[in-house]
Write the structure tokens for this entry.
Amino acid sequence: MIDTPQTLVRHDGVDGELVVRRRVTPDGPVYELIVNGTFLMDTAETSTERLLAELALDRHPDPATVLVAGLGFGFTVASLLADGRVRRVDVVEIEPTLVDVLRRGVVPGLDAVVGDPRVRMVVDDVRAVLPASAPATYDAILLDVDNGPHFLVHEANAEVYEPPLLGAAARALRPGGLLAVWSASPAPVLDDALADAVGPVEQVVRTVRREQRDVDYHVYVASRAG
């Protein structure tokens, strides 16, 4: 029997109300992240958050320095840290409450992610951070700040998927670097914009089971010429 979710954190954050809930399931506790009334993620299904990191790790021979935009519950960052080649991860997260949630261990075990000495937390908007980044800083940049260009929680995040910011990300990549963008739905316009701003694009689709139905999620991976 699945119980009524328990609210652990409720806070009026930078981009609206942030809620962290816990529900008990036959497989153990599940933690949920909800922003402005929109479900963003939970700990029951984290494969696509991990996929974002795994694609960069699989496709780059030396992913030493990585930027992750969008902390979530830290599963993308955790997957990066599990690879010994990764020496530094800059995490850009606009919501300080979410960083605090992980640091305090509200979601058990994830305090180790933000506490890892290779992690540098940057509490800021990625729309400001990437244009200010020095050229050729990162081997990979992973963007997971919203649900993709066609299912935005915050309308201002449309800029994340448009040519000016994608161009700023491309400049911040080293030659041979990768820009990976998570999307909840197919985004051919994003595919084209990435190809123009960065280079050749690969679309990876991951099907997951949610509430007795299959859901496809998408990651677009663009490669900057070496």
Summary: The CA atoms of residues 8 and 141 lie 31 Å apart. Residues 44-223 form a domain with the Rossmann fold fold (CATH 3.40.50.150). The chain has one domain: 44-223. The longest helix spans residues 47-59.
